[in-house]
């Protein structure tokens, strides 16, 4: 069965919302780094204690990422084909596209690349980290990784790439499900921008704190 264009956009929207949920939950845990090793490692231990449930959540997230990428590519191809087949254009909205939309292919690539790097650095890495003779576990691993300026810079670039994505996401989701109007569009754009920037700054505060504190 061939899916309609609107159905594809809805799949992209729902999968995107699933990833946003993960980002916010992950952020709430990561910010515990500011409270020190006990709080942060307790959070890590809690996740580990979930056992099979954690892997179900991980597989669900992977599924959401794959659906988001696949159906985004299908929509882009469909739009390009429609432009090729269009002989008369009554109104062209391409100039109305925001910077976030124009940068989507590039920020998407940066995010995908960093997901792989992030998994190698933290999820699949050895959690035993000795600092001054003390094993600080995952907390120590995060500190020793992010106090490297190159790692910190890569983290911040990835977070602002996510921020650009999110600055378009909220507005796009609302429009996809027909819950917006021309009157509400400016407010939706502002809300998306504030949300995306807020998430990017919150995540970026972590490597900035590590670099400034643990030289």
Record the SSE blueprint.
Blueprint lengths: L4 H26 L6 H13 L2 H34 L13 H4 L1 H20 L6 E2 L2 E2 L1 H10 L2 H28 L8 H29 L2
Antiparallel strand pairs: 1-2
Helix pairs in contact: 1-3, 1-7, 1-8, 2-6, 5-7, 7-8
Tell me what the structure shows.
This protein has 215 residues and is an all-alpha fold. It is 76% helix and 2% strand. Helix 1 runs parallel beside helix 8 and helix 7 (149-176) packs antiparallel against helix 8 (185-213).
Throw out a few tags for this protein:
single chain, 215 residues, mainly alpha, two-stranded antiparallel sheet
Estimated share of beta-strand residues: under 5%
Spatial order of strands in the largest sheet: 1-2
Number of helical elements = 8
Order of H and E elements: HHHHHEEHHH
What is the total domain count?
1
Class from secondary-structure proportions: mainly alpha
N-to-C span: 57 Å
Uncertain runs:
87-96
> What's the story with the biggest beta sheet?
2 strands, antiparallel
Secondary structure: helix percent: over 70%
| Integer average pLDDT | 84
